User: Fold this.
Amino acid sequence: MRKFYFTPGPSQLYYTVEEHMKNALKENVPSISHRSKDYEKIHQHAVEAIRSLLGIPDDYHIFFTSSATEIWERIIQNTVEAESFHLINGAFSRRFFEIAENYKINAMSRVVEEGKVVEAEALLIPETAELIAITQNETSTGASQPVQDIAKIRKAFPDQLIALDVVSSAPYADIDYSMVDTAYFSVQKCFGLPAGLGVWIVNNRCFQKAQKLMDKDRIIGSYHSLPSLLEKAVKNQTPETPNVLGVYLLGKVATDMADKGIDQIRRETDYKAAVLYQAFDQSEILRPFVDNEAHRSKTTLVADASVSSKEIISKLSEKAFVIGSGYGKFKDKHIRIANFPTHSKEHIEILADKLLKINN
Assistant:
C-alpha cells in the first residue's frame, strides 16, 4: 500500500521529483565531479532558481550546506562576537539559542509560551546585541510569526543583524528578504526533497562582520566560513564535495514551482490550511493548538488531541495517510500535519474527512 506523508519533514516528495531523479541517474549526476563544468551549471541553475522563486535581492549570496542545523552554528561563528538575541517560542527557536550559548557568548532571549509568538512592538533588545534571531514558523508548535513583524523589528533595530528561520515556511511565506541579513532553510520540508541539504542566504553586512571577527583572530569556521563559501560560490562551486544530487533536484523543483507560480502555490496553501483548520474545529477530539488565528501556521498545522496522538496516527496510517506526532514534551498530546506545496487539495480534503471520522 502506497502511503502519503504529511509529516512535517521529511515529508512527501514533490510530485516532479521522481521524474527528475530518473533523469539524474540517466545523466550520471551523482557521479559528477564537484569541480567540473557540469556541476557548475547545476549549481548556477539551483542558485538562480531559488533567487527567482523567493525574490532574493541580487546582491545577496546563496550557499549550500549540509542542513539548516549547521547554519545555526555558522551564523553564530561568522556574525557574533559577544551577544545575540533570540525570539523563543518553541523547541527549534530554543535550539538556536542553545547553540549560541555553547559558544560562551551572552545569548539573550525573549521567551513566550509554546503556541504563541513574541510581540514585535514589545521587544526590548539591548543595543549591544549583534544579532536578532527570528523563527518565522516554529515547526514544533505551529505558531507563525507574522511576516509584517519582520519589517517592524528591522525599523526598530536597524543596526543589528537579523537572522530569519524559514525552514518550514519557504517558499510559502511572502518575505521581503531585503529586511533581513541572513535567512535559511532545509529542503526536506516545503520543497519536498530528500533530506541532506541546507540553503543559506546571506547579505554583505554579514560578510563585513565576519571580516571583523577574522581581523580579531576569531575562528569563524573551518571549511564553511562565509569567506570560504564565497570564494567557491563565485565559481559556482562549494568548498567541500556537496550533495550534488540534492543541488540538482533543488534547482529542478524550484524551477517547477516558479513555473506553477508562487501566487498559485500560496493560494492553494491558504485553501488547504482552511480545510484542515475547519476539520480541527469540527472534531470532537481535536482543537488548534495555537489559539490566535493570526498566528496559526499555514504550512505546519498542530492540533491538541484529547486522546493519545498515537491512536490518531495509527488509524490514519492504516488508511495510508501518515501524519506527525507532537514534538518533544507534546509527543503524545499533539498531531502535526504538513501542508506543503506537494500536498494536493484532493489529498488534504480526504485527510480532513478521515480526521473527522476518527471521532467515532
About this structure: The longest strand covers residues 83-88. The two ends are 24 Å apart (CA to CA). Residues 211 and 275 are 49 Å apart (CA to CA).
